[in-house]
């Protein structure tokens, strides 16, 4: 037991030293000590933790003996490790900490929510960004587009952190916020894009903006107001012909009326015998405000985004589509992928290929904003 405690203590000192070295080695970057909290697992009944030199502490800061790999299970009042219940367990490793086999930098904090275990990964913001790049785009894209992605992801993360200061975590690791799968897919180009833009964020009138972005706008970016109702002067929508060079910009999809009816009913809509679907009103940016569905119960009108959610965001890739019904099947033909607000990732890629700098790409998609470097004492 004493040996084990000594090992934990020594590992703790090593981890501390390692973190100090990491911080000092990045001291040339702006604001290297900014951290971010990301929910990487939610609603789990069990979570495995592994890695080199894993140590654990409980909610009061005292050490908990662990011999990784360990499995933490959900309990009624807390997370259960080796038969003991804890309100919170925080794991750190000598290098990356592995959660369900995936490596993450920083620490992993396990606690209970109503529906199971939630794992929050707390790590340095700049390290989070390096891991994120290849989840959102590919670091093999032209470097100016990768740098633009680094800036907007940093901006987005800091805006969310301010908005969710008192929450358990700041960001989801899915498309709900920004896709993040840990540090396994870090590479030198992602690193370069993050360090060459270290600490840089977009501001409007001195405040960090809500830097929404999406995969492909299909020709025109969307006004934030049309999607979320809030008018943001730097996100009124711009023309973007650049993403049209991507062959996947135009999409087609077939959905049977029966499948559509099943999905509508599952989402609580009172339809029966769906016989037709037609586009409703379009907004100023060319996207559908609503969709009209006919069934024996009359007409049902769904908002464009609501329709995508019901049928599947991956099936109906955008709200810029036409639809015709033939042989019991709705045939969709559309442009773009995603909500369309803010930077268009495929457009940004093309602009970078055309020789534009990341600063020019950013000011194009977020007009009126300025690039600002965060200071150490922020
Ligand atoms: Zn575009």
For the structure shown, list the relevant keywords:
378 residues; 3 domains; six-stranded antiparallel sheet; 28% helix; 30% strand; disordered N terminus
Give a short overview:
With 378 residues, the chain is of the alpha+beta class.
How are the secondary structure elements laid out?
Blueprint: H1 2-25, E1 35-44, E2 46-50, E3 55-58, E4 63-64, E5 70-74, E6 79-81, E7 84-86, E8 88-92, E9 97-99, E10 102-104, E11 107-113, E12 116-124, H2 125-136, H3 143-163, E13 171-172, H4 188-196, E14 200-204, E15 207-208, E16 213-214, H5 224-228, E17 250-256, H6 257-266, E18 276-279, E19 290-295, E20 298-303, H7 304-311, E21 321-326, E22 329-335, E23 343-344, H8 345-353, H9 358-365, E24 370-373
Parallel strand pairs: 1-13, 16-23
Antiparallel strand pairs: 1-12, 2-5, 2-9, 3-4, 3-8, 5-6, 6-7, 8-11, 9-10, 11-12, 14-15, 14-24, 17-22, 18-19, 19-20, 21-22
The structure holds zinc ion.
Could you describe the 3D structure shown?
The protein is of the alpha+beta class and 378 residues long. The protein folds into three domains: 2-17 and 32-124, no CATH class; 145-245 and 340-373, no CATH class; 250-335, no CATH class. The protein is 28% helix and 30% strand. The protein contains nine helices and 24 strands. It has helices spanning 2-25, 125-136, 143-163, 188-196, 224-228, 257-266, 304-311, 345-353, 358-365, and strands spanning 35-44, 46-50, 55-58, 63-64, 70-74, 79-81, 84-86, 88-92, 97-99, 102-104, 107-113, 116-124, 171-172, 200-204, 207-208, 213-214, 250-256, 276-279, 290-295, 298-303, 321-326, 329-335, 343-344, 370-373. The strands form six sheets. The chain has a seven-stranded mixed beta sheet with strand order 4-3-8-11-12-1-13. It is globular, with a radius of gyration of 24 Å. Residues 1-30 have low confidence and may be disordered. Zinc ion binds next to helix 8. The site of zinc ion (ZN) has 8 residues, from helix 8.
């Amino acid at each position: 037991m004493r040996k084990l405690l000594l090992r934990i203590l020594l590992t703790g000192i090593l981890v501390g030293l390692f973190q100090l070295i990491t911080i000092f080695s990045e001291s040339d970057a702006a604001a290297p000590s900014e951290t971010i909290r990301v929910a990487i697992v939610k609603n789990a009944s069990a979570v495995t933790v592994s890695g080199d030199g894993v140590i654990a502490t409980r909610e009061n800061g005292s050490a908990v003996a662990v011999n990784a790999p360990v499995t933490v299970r959900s309990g009624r009042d807390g997370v259960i490790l080796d038969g003991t219940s804890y309100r919170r367990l925080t794991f750190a490793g000598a290098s990356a900490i592995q959660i369900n086999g995936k490596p993450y930098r920083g620490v992993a904090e396990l606690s209970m929510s109503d529906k199971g275990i939630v794992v929050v990964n707390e790590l340095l913001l700049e390290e989070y960004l390096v891991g994120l790049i290849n989840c959102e785009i590919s670091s093999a894209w032209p470097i100016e587009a990768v740098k633009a992605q680094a800036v907007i992801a940093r901006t987005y993360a800091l805006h969310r952190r301010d908005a969710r200061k008192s929450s358990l975590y700041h960001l989801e690791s899915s498309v709900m916020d920004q896709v993040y799968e840990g540090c396994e897919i870090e590479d030198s180009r992602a690193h370069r894009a993050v360090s060459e833009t270290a600490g840089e964020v977009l501001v409007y009138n001195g405040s960090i903006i809500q830097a929404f972005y999406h995969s492909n706008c299909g020709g025109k970016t969307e006004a934030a107001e049309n999607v979320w109702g809030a008018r943001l002067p730097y996100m009124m929508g711009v023309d973007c012909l650049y993403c049209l060079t991507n062959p996947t910009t135009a999409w087609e999809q077939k959905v049977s009326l029966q499948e559509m009816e099943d999905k509508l009913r599952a989402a609580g809509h009172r339809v029966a015998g769906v016989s037709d679907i037609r586009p409703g009103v379009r907004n100023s940016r060319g996207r559908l405000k609503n969709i009209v569905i006919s069934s024996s119960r009359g007409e049902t009108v769904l908002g464009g985004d609501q329709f995508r959610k019901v049928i599947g965001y991956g099936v109906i890739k955008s709200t810029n589509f036409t639809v015709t019904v033939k042989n019991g099947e709705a045939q969709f033909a559309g442009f773009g992928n995603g909500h369309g607000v803010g930077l268009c990732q495929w457009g940004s890629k093309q602009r970078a290929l055309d020789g534009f700098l990341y600063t020019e790409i950013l000011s194009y998609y977020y007009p009126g904003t300025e690039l600002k470097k965060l200071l150490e004492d922020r």
